[in-house]
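Input chain follows. Return structure tokens only.
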Amino acid sequence: MIDREYIKKNINLIFDVETLNIRNNKLFHYVETSSDVNTEKKGSSGAYTPRYSARPPFVDMQLNPNGNWELQWETYTNLKKLYNKVEHLPGCRKVFLDILEKKLSNLGAISVSTHIDSRTKIPIAHELHSSASLAFYFLLKIDCKNAIIGALEKKLNENMIQDTVEDINTGEYVDIEIYNCENDIEGLFRSVLRFMHLEPICFSEQLLNFLNRTAYNCLGTSSDLGKQFIEEIIFLNYNRLIDELKDSNEEINIHKEQVIELISRYGFPQDMERFLLEIDELPDLSKWQSVNSGMIGNLRSFFEALVRSIADKISTKTGVECPKPQGNETEIGIKRKYIKEQLELSGADNKLIDSFVTILHKEGGHTFVSERKYFVMTKNIGIEIAYFLLSIYEEKFEKS
């Protein structure tokens, strides 16, 4: 029978095995895999040897996040299998996750020997690890980041000591908070460092900020792990910025700024600038995720405002009124025809604009442009068309 006791008993069993593995220095590892370097586990020592003797496989922090690797962690695999077995049953998912949150908030450090004196056979170097890494990673992989933060905040609050010390610079007494769980956090964060390095996509900005504060408060920058942990977060955020900037086209951005300047200089409606700025504020989506209809609507609104405003400006400058729509004609269609004549656009120029309008308004075009990758492409075309039309308008009617 699967009930709370069944779930609790088996989670405890898996964590007991994880604790024993850590004490026996059988730690989880990310291990390189490729067509050139394949690995196999050797014996019970937990060591990995290459099938080809060119070099040992890279592991953990030696690996590139974009390279070929796999996570070798038996207890995590079994914890995931247990979750898959029970999570669809009424109430079982909550019971499972509540137990994992408690495991994480009750984390404790385990000292592991890393170097043994060859003469005396006595351990002379140690590292701290924690079986709570298993709970952290599981919650991370099922996107329960708030549960991670809540569990660790509980640990910190239960181990916080308030004290008053003298500031050596001012001589004033200040209140400080000291966390009496540095070793426990160090044991956990040694694993979290590897998670961040190789699976950065799993870490939200909120979680990273929390981990960064906790590292400063508990580990500081004087310890090797604390320094490495904080540096890893800096580089993770920097790489995210680089990825964001990959979609940026410098020439298009210059033209966007020039469009905004022309809008302002010649008294075009400010709504045009607002629409243009809003369509450039894309949500944080992958290139194949959908853009919401409001973003597409802003792109349409910008183009329609552009057409109306240029037509009105030309009419004011020339005294030649734009014809009124007749029959099935639309206002935008008539104004576009008027602009074509007044700006002396070529047939090729007009066909490009026709294609842009079709993408924005036809049903099939909406499906196309709703994907972020194609929305960015369409937005950039729209900016270039706006720059093209406004530049011709300026040359013909503002500089003459």
